[in-house]
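Deliverable D2.4 — example input (structure tokens):
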């Protein structure tokens, strides 16, 4: 057993509730935006490319800055960075809520990415330094991970209600009260922590990390959306070269931006890759399922939200079940089995059809429940393994790597599978008997645009155009679901093979309390003890 002075008390668990707030908020924001796509498509009339950027520019910018922000938090203080990021996130949300055009909304979402990059590494690294006992830390990570699912479960209901009563901009305004609570509660409940000997921040490493992430991610998006091109391959090569230089520099620096040696741990590297694939598929599913429910099955936003809620609630419960499973089964068995369950959910979504709303909704509810169940089980253990591999003084850098996998996976999920869906949709919707070709071309941009064009046409022509668009979208959804099923199944096999013999995060040696020299501010009224 770990010594008593490493066990968290009431103050630490109260601090955990505060640290989960940004997680819930970002999850709500992600889910709500998916439901707002049809409404903002009608209001701002974005092109299909702009729509994809509105959805995924947040994840691209966030992924590019997470490593830098994680290292910055280690140096200036994780609580301080969290507070600055919270204020910036609230301000950017206000800009997004009243964006008059697609271009302004894209910029606002990019600013949200900059602010969001400071939130996630800070919460996980503060958690790592608050809960020193291994088993308590795994439970705390389960609570933290369940915040994603809880926020995703709340998002459809809250978003559906907002969209039925207010404009799409209201989905961003819900961020403001949460940010206000966070700014008040953080100084009272969460103690500051930082790396006691962080060393100098290397500006060139910051530039190289951005030069690696942004061109590479953009290149993948362009390849998925438009196929091979000299520009896309050039950007991909530039990103890979910058990445190689970045890794080489980190190994040579006495105070690297990230500790690349963490990847020597098989458990660390495999679980980071697993997180990326898992979020890749999950976020992509939310992108196309929300549109399928609302625009193909013609279900209201709130009712569509309730279709997804059972799966998201299951995901919350699964986060805590994973803690018990980790004490009885190997890490390979739980993570590999969880991903297999997720893969089966995507396979079921291939059976969805554009007709029979009741049957389609049941297939979506069941398929998404399987996807969320597997994700919830795997997420707690993968994050626990990642954080157990890192010493507390490098918690910010380790959590930044973990969150980079999350956000990069989410951004790529929308970019790649969203682009595949768009390409399939356009290929199927080429001409409709009795409908002017100009109207068909307009409808080919997005499904939301097809709904608007069909309403303007009216009559039989409008109905035929919408039916063709719904059929084309559903066909594209089948293709993206099948791709996701195969990808997740491959990840399941990889986890089963490569994690065999690796101890789970709840199976540390007795007496291990993970203490090192990570420092915190002196005790203060209302502060926690680390």
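Example output (designed residues):
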């Amino acid at each position: 057993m770990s010594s008593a002075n490493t066990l968290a008390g009431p103050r630490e668990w109260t601090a955990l509730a505060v640290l989960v707030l940004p997680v819930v908020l970002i999850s709500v924001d992600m889910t709500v935006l998916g439901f707002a796509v049809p409404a903002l498509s009608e209001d701002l009339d974005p092109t299909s490319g702009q729509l994809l950027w509105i959805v995924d520019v947040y994840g691209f910018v966030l992924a590019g800055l997470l490593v830098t922000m994680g290292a910055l938090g280690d140096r200036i203080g994780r609580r301080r960075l969290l507070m600055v990021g919270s204020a910036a996130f609230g301000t950017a949300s206000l800009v997004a809520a009243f964006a008059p055009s697609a271009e302004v909304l894209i910029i606002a979402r990019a600013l949200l990415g900059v602010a969001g990059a400071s939130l996630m590494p800070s919460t996980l690294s503060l958690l790592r330094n608050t809960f020193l006992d291994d088993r308590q830390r795994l439970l705390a990570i389960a609570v933290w991970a369940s915040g994603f699912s809880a926020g995703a479960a709340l998002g459809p209901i809250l978003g559906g209600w907002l969209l039925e009563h207010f404009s799409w901009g209201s989905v961003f305004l819900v961020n403001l009260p949460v940010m206000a609570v966070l700014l008040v509660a953080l100084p009272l409940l969460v103690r500051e922590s930082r790396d006691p000997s962080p060393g100098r921040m290397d500006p060139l490493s910051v530039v190289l990390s951005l030069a690696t992430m942004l061109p590479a991610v953009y290149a993948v998006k362009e390849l998925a959306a438009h196929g091979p091109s000299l520009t896309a391959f050039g950007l991909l090569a530039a990103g890979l070269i910058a990445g190689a230089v970045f890794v080489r520099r980190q190994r040579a620096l006495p105070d690297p931006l990230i500790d690349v040696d963490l990847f020597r741990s098989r458990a660390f590297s495999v679980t980071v890759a697993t997180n990326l694939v898992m979020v890749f598929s999950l976020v992509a599913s939310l992108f196309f399922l929300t549109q399928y429910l609302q625009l193909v099955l013609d279900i209201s936003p709130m009712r569509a939200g309730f279709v997804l809620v059972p799966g998201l609630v299951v995901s919350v419960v699964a986060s805590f079940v994973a803690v018990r499973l980790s004490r009885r089964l190997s890490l390979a068995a739980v993570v590999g089995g969880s991903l297999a369950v997720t893969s089966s959910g995507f396979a079921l979504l291939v059976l969805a059809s554009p007709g029979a709303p009741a049957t389609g909704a049941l297939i979506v509810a069941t398929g998404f429940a399987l996807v969320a169940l597997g994700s919830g089980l795997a997420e707690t253990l993968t994050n626990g393994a990642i954080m157990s591999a890192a010493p507390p003084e490098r918690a910010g850098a380790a959590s930044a790597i973990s969150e980079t996998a999350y956000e990069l996976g989410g951004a790529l999920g929308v970019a790649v599978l969203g682009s595949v869906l768009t390409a399939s949709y356009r290929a199927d919707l080429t001409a409709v008997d009795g409908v002017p070709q100009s109207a068909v071309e307009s409808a080919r941009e997005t499904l939301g645009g097809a709904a608007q064009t069909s309403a303007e046409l009216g009559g039989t022509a409008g109905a035929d155009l919408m039916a063709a668009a719904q059929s084309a979208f559903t066909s594209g959804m089948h293709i993206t679901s099948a791709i996701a099923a195969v990808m997740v199944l491959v990840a399941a096999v990889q986890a089963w093979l490569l994690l065999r013999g690796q101890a789970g995060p709840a199976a540390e040696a007795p007496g291990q309390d993970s203490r090192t020299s990570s420092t915190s501010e002196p005790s203060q009224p209302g502060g926690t003890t680390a």
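The longest strand covers residues 193-194.
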